[in-house]
Amino acid sequence: MSKFPPLKNDRLLRAVRGEPVDKVPVWIMRQAGRYLPEFRESRSKNDFFTICRTPSLACEVTLQPIDRYDGLLDASIIFSDILVVPQAMGMVVEMLPKEGPHFPSPLTNPADIAKLKSEVDVSAELGYVFDAITLTREKLGGRVPLFGFAGAPWTLFSYMIEGGGSKTFAKSKAWLFKWPKESEELLKRITDVVVDFLVGQAKAGAQILQVFDSNAGELSPSDYRQFILPHTLSIPTRVNTALRSQNLGHVPIVAFPRNAHGALKEFASSDYDAISIDFGVEPEVARSLLPGKTLQGNIDPSVLYGSKDYIRERVQALVAQFGTKKWIANLGHGVYPDHDPEHVRYFLEAIRDFTQTA
Ligand SMILES: Cc1c2[nH]c(c1CCC(=O)O)Cc1[nH]c(c(CCC(=O)O)c1C)Cc1[nH]c(c(CCC(=O)O)c1C)Cc1[nH]c(c(C)c1CCC(=O)O)C2
């Protein structure tokens, strides 16, 4: 018996399993964020990572879009960041206003790997995320399922080496090509922490998990396949095995290999339950590359700058492309800070209006 309130809206979990739904489930990447005035209000009082590390605050912010769009969203996602994993491994990460994440001491060469913790106790380092998940599951009262998430090995590797965002990813790619053995070791260490972190989130109450490989498209398909893919694909296999060995039920996992179009087909036979696609790939192309998989996505967030009528037109076209089965509607990347929350509502309402079957 679960210790949590029973789930009242299981559309998203049904879609992942390929079961029929009365309406296509929808949520929005970065749905708790700066486009919401209530988030900016919470942020004006607290530093970004303080919110992440304080379960009551993380829970409050996670629930903001669920409360605002009452009944229109079919999932929540725990408020946190992919960069809590490098922090758990011993790195300092700051969130600079306007600039985004900043590592004062990024990894500059393989000798720096020794500065990372050799063993990471995820309960000790990231227990605050687990507590936030458990609290949020309670406060959600079964309204919608709760996503846990983590960054994928390559995206975290690139942040840890670049020290923040990058135009060329020259430093992190140089590692792969100059120091393949050490890069492999670092990727393996990141993957180990990510696996433990996802298992811990599932145990804490996350009902579905997403692995964000936001920088996947920065590598050529063959380099992604050679250096990165084995790590990315090992994650769901290892998480499933760990949960099974602890007699816990299956928790579905979504991969978001953003812009990795040349490597997309490799996810077809993977243990990921669903694949989130960016807006650079046509739904029908994704369907043919990933037969049988539930897809998530993929409207360009910028479409939300359009009028209500325009958003509805684009959603109608999107529904014609995806159909209503094995699809979780979403944007192709996160919502932008200057989006109008009312336009987000138009998107959610349009998905409901054009996909409702019952
Ligand atoms: C690459 C990445 C990061 N973080 C994340 C990714 C993968 C998804 C993607 O590609 O967008 C994932 C993420 N970050 C955040 C969430 C929360 C849950 C949700 O989706 O609502 C999630 C799932 C909160 C956040 N993470 C961040 C904010 C805004 C920072 C602030 O409030 O000051 C939020 C709400 C900061 C952040 N964090 C990161 C960047 C590049 C930035 C700066 C860019 C920006 O400012 O939007 C790293």
TrEMBL record:
Alphabetical keyword list: Cytoplasm, Decarboxylase, Lyase, Porphyrin biosynthesis
Catalytic activity: uroporphyrinogen III + 4 H(+) = coproporphyrinogen III + 4 CO2
One GO term describing the cellular component: cytosol
Swiss-Prot/TrEMBL GO biological process terms: protoporphyrinogen IX biosynthetic process
Function text: Catalyzes the decarboxylation of four acetate groups of uroporphyrinogen-III to yield coproporphyrinogen-III.
NCBIfam families: hemE
Family affiliation: Belongs to the uroporphyrinogen decarboxylase family.
Assembly, per entry: Homodimer.
PANTHER family: METHYLTETRAHYDROFOLATE:HOMOCYSTEINE METHYLTRANSFERASE RELATED, UROPORPHYRINOGEN DECARBOXYLASE
UniProt protein name: Uroporphyrinogen decarboxylase
Gene source species: Gonapodya prolifera (strain JEL478)
Record lineage: Eukaryota, Fungi, Fungi incertae sedis, Chytridiomycota, Chytridiomycota incertae sedis
